[in-house]
């Protein structure tokens, strides 16, 4: 299976808004550039958990990509607050983190994350997760 740079594996263009919550400017630029090959996807970012929660409430993104290590509150706390708020509880969340502990991944999945993508990841894996999540949201 190959990934079309303008759409998903089947070649259909994906649309939607993706909010990336990560305090690393380099990681944010990287994800923004990767998602640039999805011209119908709107990219937004937040550098910490609280502004990420605020952005999620304002933007109502179709997908949140969430790092676990944030400077103010943990990504796990962000996930819990997104799930607890009726306005954001239905937004799919994909954890994108350097965390490799399977028990942490299982805990995050039980708390409502759609999946966990471990850094460093393959570009195709990120695009596949985004494509799948946005296709389900459509």
- Report low-confidence residues grouped into runs of 5 or more: none
Task: Name the structural class.
Answer: alpha/beta
CATH topology call: Rossmann fold
Report the total helices.
5
Question: What would CATH call the class?
Answer: Alpha Beta
The gross shape turns out to be: globular
CA-based gyration radius: 14 Å
CATH architecture: 3-Layer(aba) Sandwich
- Total domain units: 1
Can you give the helix content as a percent range?
A: 40-55%
CATH homologous superfamily (4th level) name: Response regulator
Number of strands: 5
In round numbers, the mean pLDDT is 93
Amount of beta strand? 15-25%
**Could you give the order of strands across the largest sheet?**
2-1-3-4-5
What's the order of the H and E elements?
A: EHEHEHEHEH
Tell me the span between the first and last alpha carbons: 22 Å
SSE order and pairing:
Layout: E1 16-21, H1 25-35, E2 41-46, H2 49-59, E3 63-66, H3 75-84, E4 93-97, H4 102-110, E5 115-118, H5 123-137
Parallel strand pairs: 1-2, 1-3, 3-4, 4-5
Helix pairs in contact: 2-3
Structure, explained:
This protein is of the alpha/beta class. It has a single domain (16-137), classed as Rossmann fold, CATH 3.40.50. The protein is 41% helix and 18% strand. The chain has helices at 25-35, 49-59, 75-84, 102-110, 123-137; strands spanning 16-21, 41-46, 63-66, 93-97, 115-118. The protein has a 5-stranded parallel sheet, sandwiched between helices. The two termini are 22 Å apart.
């Amino acid at each position: 299976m190959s990934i079309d740079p303008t759409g998903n594996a089947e070649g259909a263009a994906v649309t939607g808004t993706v909010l990336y919550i990560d305090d690393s400017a380099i990681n944010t630029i990287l994800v923004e550039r990767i998602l640039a090959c999805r011209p119908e996807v709107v990219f937004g970012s937040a550098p910490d958990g609280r502004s990420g929660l605020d952005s999620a409430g304002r933007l109502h993104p179709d997908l949140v990509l969430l790092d676990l290590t944030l400077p103010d509150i943990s990504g796990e706390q962000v996930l819990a607050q997104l799930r607890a708020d009726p306005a954001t509880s239905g937004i799919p969340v994909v954890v994108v983190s350097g965390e490799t502990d399977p028990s942490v991944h299982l805990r995050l999945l039980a708390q409502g994350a759609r999946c966990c993508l471990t850094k460093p990841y393959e570009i195709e894996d990120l695009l596949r997760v985004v494509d799948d999540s946005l296709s389900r949201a459509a």
